[in-house]
Amino acid sequence: MNHTTTSAEPTAPVAGRLSIVDRFLPAWIGGAMLLGLLLGRGLPSLDEGLADMDVGSVSLPIAIGLLVMMYPVLAKVRYGELSHVAADRRLLVASIVLNWIIGPALMFALSWLLLPDLPAYRTGLIIVGLARCIAMVLIWNDLACGDGDAAAVLVALNAVFQIVAFAALGYFYLELVPGWLGLPQDSLDVSMWDIAQSVLIFLGIPLVAGYLSRVIGERTRGRDWYEARFLPRIGPLALYGLLFTVVVLFALQGDTITNQPLDVARIALPLLAYFALMWVGSFALGIRLHMTYERTTSLAFTAAGNNFELAIAVSISIFGVTSGQALAGVVGPLIEVPVLVALVYAALWARRRYFPTPAAKLSQKVSSDD
Q1: What's the pLDDT at 113?
Q2: Is the pTM above the cut of 0.85?
């Protein structure tokens, strides 16, 4: 996944600012989703074979796909220059509030509002709302030309909060709040180690690999070689890893999804509302706080994305692989992937509309003076 950024970029058509490969990303992802569904439907034993490759609560095929997908993105990060991101208190505070206060509360409200008669699906979606994204969000941010360094910091921040706060928030939203409101209660029995294991695998391994690649590459061959020669070579791995992950995700649950289309549609409604409200609200907040386009984009995608791998693993371990809670988690990527691809295009359009270049601003001023 490579982009060529120029000063004229914001005034060019959205598609023209993407590489040929990235320009047809919706088609690649759509094909991967269809292939996964067909494999899951046509080969009933495939999901059992893939499940046999689980290590604890972690799916080995999905882990491999995510690691391959995230490594090129994290290898791009200039780790020696992250202090300027960490010093941006507006960005960090906004991200914490959006991810750990507004996001879970919004999913809780939408789940109860739109699924009052489906408690299993409702609980599954609340769990999804608690699992903040630490993986695919880096891809969407990269495609939308967001700030890669900022995204890495925000993802790391989410990882820390996820380890510390996930179980506590589960208790809060599944037991305490429903009890206060006189609603049916549920429980979430998950250990801090289970959450830490997921974070260490899905974020820790590619983060260490990306950091070591940057340090060793720059020390042995220099930054120019590393960024001009090495990064373009490994860049396509991100797309390959993404497509492989999508195929595996949909193959694992292809039969379930195709056999319960009405249930999938019911689960999709709160998810669609959630992604739209979180992304638009976060992007608007970034504009309001006078952030750059790059950091506004990183804020919006890290706030809108969710860690479905963790949500699915937790739901399966507590409620079972055939539970409604697990199905709600599985439907998540079915909705998130195409929606966030569309939001990549929305972000690139918004850059032209709300973040004009100095030349465009001058042109607008001249026009208004005339």
Answers
A1: 95
A2: no
